[in-house]
Amino acid sequence: MTFPGSAILHTRGRNQMEETPKLIGLDYATASQDIIEILLEDTSEPAVFEEVARANLHRPEILRLILEYPDTPEEARKFVEEHLSMPVKASLGLVKAERAKEARETRGESLTSKIQKLTVSARIQLALKGGREIRGILARDTNKEVMLSILENGKITESEIETIARSRQSLEEALRRIARNREWMRNYAVVHALVTNPKTPAGIAVSHVSDLKTKDLIILERNKNLAEAVRSAGKKLLHARKPK
């Protein structure tokens, strides 16, 4: 059963050998104002605003935050106004066009700054629940648990997985988790990114060399940034694929 005000995420471990589902929750009713503010700035889903509002009828500071945010949907705005006992005014909580434009231009910088000030626990919550922009920021987080938590986010896309698999800044454990996920490894771009990333453990890269197309094997065999075992596996496979 899911209780009002609780955003629950059911996940199975990305390792296919794990059979015990994990239950991860972010309770809007108790989440800090900083976390809620960041989630509202990041989300493009109108339902989130009303969900947060309904969970925080006991917290006027959160209701005011929703009311004053320029992108709050009208339905959620009216709901909040009613529960704050304030007259409905179409202009209430809106900013001038100039301020809205300025806010959009500086949003990325301000969002990054806000996230960096949060505790590790709060950043992990955001990694599990946040949208694409939040995930992009936290993918560069120096804390291992924060970065790995992004892979447990139910909304993460395969293009984001490819970016992580390709990045030389990615943690080795993150690359291992990607390699263990059968669904992600059905995507050729992810496989290619993983095999050609020098940070990927050689044993994992070698085991997927055979999945590469011949044209990519030619490039791989010449890539001196890769481990000799990976290049050697590519060379042998190229030789085997040559017409007899």
Question: What key phrases describe this protein's structure?
Answer:
244 residues; mainly alpha; 2 domains; 14 helices; 2 strands; 56% helix
Kindly describe this structure.
With about 240 residues, the protein is mostly helical. The protein has 14 helices and 2 strands. It has 2 domains: about 160 residues, no CATH class; about 70 residues, no CATH class. The chain is elongated.
SSE map:
Blueprint: E1 6-11, E2 22-27, H1 33-42, H2 46-55, H3 60-68, H4 74-83, H5 97-116, H6 120-129, H7 132-138, H8 144-149, H9 158-166, H10 172-180, H11 188-195, H12 202-207, H13 214-222, H14 228-241
Antiparallel strand pairs: 1-2
Q: Taking Cα atoms only, what radius of gyration do you get, to the nearest Å?
A: 23 Å
Shape: elongated
Largest sheet: 2 strands, antiparallel
Average predicted confidence as pLDDT: 81
**H and E string:** EEHHHHHHHHHHHHHH
The rounded distance between the terminal residues' Cα atoms is 62 Å
* Strand numbers in spatial order across the main sheet: 1-2
Put simply, the count of helices is 14
Q: Strand tally, please?
A: 2
How much of the sequence is in beta strands? under 5%
Indicate how many domains the architecture comprises.
Answer: 2
Which structural class is indicated by helix and strand composition? Answer: mainly alpha
Q: Which runs of at least 5 residues are low in confidence (pLDDT < 50)?
A: 1-24, 87-102
Summarize the amount of helix as a percent range.
Answer: 55-70%
